[in-house]
Design brief:
This protein is of the alpha/beta class and 469 residues long. The strands form 3 sheets. The protein has a 7-stranded mixed beta sheet, with helices on both faces. The chain has a 6-stranded parallel beta sheet with strand order 8-11-12-13-14-15. α10 links the parallel β11 and β12. α9 runs parallel beside α10 and α14 packs parallel to α16. It is globular and about 65 Å long. The termini are far apart.
Length: 469
Amino acid sequence: MKILFIYTNPLGIPYYDFGIGSLSSLLKSKNHKVDLLDFTFGMSIKKALKKAKRFKPDIILFTSRTNEFQDVIRIAKSLKKELNKPMFCGGIHPTVAPEDAIKYFDGICIGEGEEALLELIENFEKNKDYTKTRGFWFNKDNKIIKNPVPCLVPTLDNYPFPDREIFDYDKYLKARNYQMDFMTSRGCPFQCTYCVNHTLQQLYKGKGNYIRTYSIPLVIKELKRLKSKYKIKTIYFLDETFNWNKERLKEFSKAYKKEINLPYECCLRADLCDEEVFKYLKDSNCYKVAIAIESGNEKIRKELLNKHISDKQIIAAFNLARKYEITSMSYNMVGLPLETKKDIQMTIDLNKKAKPDALQVSIFNPFYGTRLYDYSKSKGLIRGNLSKSYYTGTNLYNPNISQKEIIKIRNTFAYNVYKERSLIKAYLLLLKENIVPIYLKFGQYIPVWFNRIIYLLFWNFKPLRFLGK
């Protein structure tokens, strides 16, 4: 069959979509023909329709996060009008808000799509009743048909690695200053209330292990292939918690150093950081780690966010990064439910103590499928629609801080952390935080060369590392 994928990516940030890549590689391995309409770099609807008509798909597949769903609907309506082909949508929004998503499509995929999509296509090809496909809800004759999710495969080695060729991947790499995203695992063992992992863990309860990995030898084999095919300067491992399994990290470190040895960055959990972890990271050429702080109020972290990590553990993790000369970045949130200005000042103060080389701060948005969404709704704090980006606004009402104040706090957060250590760094980060909303508004129309400059200066943080140590 001929399957057309749609990647709307309304913010235009050049992040490769692993969901589309994984499904595409699997379909190609089964001899299906696939194509992609990628809106990342400003493709017009007119050009997209022309390309879609030329491909003549049998099925059209969308993926959607919650804050981009309105753009997905808009493009889906245009394609439906011109092509009138079965349209299905997967991704996190249909998974956590199926009652909302099913209204706009012939069907939606709940959870992971590989097994479900193969079954759907097989049913289409054999003229079977496709409405019984596991992992899908269907909208047929004004009736919603709901099917259970299939079991999870025990290891990701059962699947081919994600397809990058379906994207204009050289263009992605160029826009990201030749940094490649890569994942060695799926899932997270923790249940932070602002994250959907709890919902996904419940969805697959009794259906197999939620956390699955590619074996290290296969990871190295794929990295070697990609390294020989593309120009790659650095790698960003997007595993949700790169240090969740120390023995696996040890195995990775040894093999990666020997076979790949490109500089890389990853995300760590502070309470799982120790000398041994950082020795493995340093030895395998890790140059940057991101560690979540989220809130500087230990009670909020524990009781509201379900993150049982102490200030002491956070500070110790950043100290280890400094000791091993690995650049560090902290993740932070402002505008949490019922948070006060005093609480936010505690987050600023904890950053001052932890001394990350750079930081990222977002405005909290209550997303569907999270415990904090349920909490916020029960308190009557949700107002209107989600912001397109958690850097520019929120749909959460906070009686203690106005939205205008929260945006101002976010934009000046980094300045207030660094002003006592380095005014140069503080002002550079102030500039960055005020550029971000503009960048996100016009991201799809920004030339690749300008994208590289923005990425190099403000996302890679290398020029900022040695300022204000």
